[in-house]
Amino acid sequence: MFDNLREDWRTYERDLTRQGLWVMAVYRFGRWRYRIQKRWLRLPFSVLYKLLRLLLQILTGIDLPCEAIVGRRFRIEHFGDIIISGDAVFGDDVVIRNGVTIGLKRTYERGAPIIGNRVDIGTGAKILGPIRIGDDVVIGANAVVLQDVPPHSLAIGVPARIRPRRARSGSGSEFGYKSESESGSGREAL
Q: Are 73 and 92 in contact (CB under 8 A)?
């Protein structure tokens, strides 16, 4: 737990005012308490976790249950209105922003998304159902993703359309735009 907390501390640039750091600390505590084998000994830690989680839901608007599996360097860029299913799985270096929902497609259907490594999830995106998001994917703002997204792709729109991402050419942005010096006229369309 403490190794993960130290890494979270570095991920959030050692800034105690970052609400994502608060949520990650409570999440790590919630995961840690499951290591206590004896139920009667774990009970006070469980009560404390549930109270802290509720307090953070009220203060930050972020719901990250400890049942979700989160990789290393998970980063919540902007707080508020973030709902994550306890069945969701995240790889390493995932970034999410405000207004993101990751969870079940329908209440009577089991299965939540599995998110790969180095995935960037834009503001307001909804990722629903038992789908897989590959490594190095960008989910655009307000996209509604209901199908698998292959690695090195861009998902945009409602419902999301999947497009391949252009390879980085060094100075271009991760979205495939060329810099003004490369194109001579500013951004070019994907």
A: yes
- 175 CB-near residues (< 8 Å, 6+ apart): 138, 154, 165, 190
> How sure is the predictor about 186, in pLDDT bands with cuts at 50, 70 and 90?
very low
pLDDT, position 169: 53
**CATH fold for domain 2-165:** UDP N-Acetylglucosamine Acyltransferase; domain 1 (2.160.10)
pLDDT of residue 28: 93
Domain range summary for the chain, segments of one domain joined by + = 2-165
Task: Determine the Cα–Cα distance for residues 189 and 176; give it in Å rounded to an integer.
Answer: 9
The pTM of this model reads 0.80
Write down the mean pLDDT value for the chain.
85
184: Cβ contacts below 8 Å, ≥ 6 apart: none
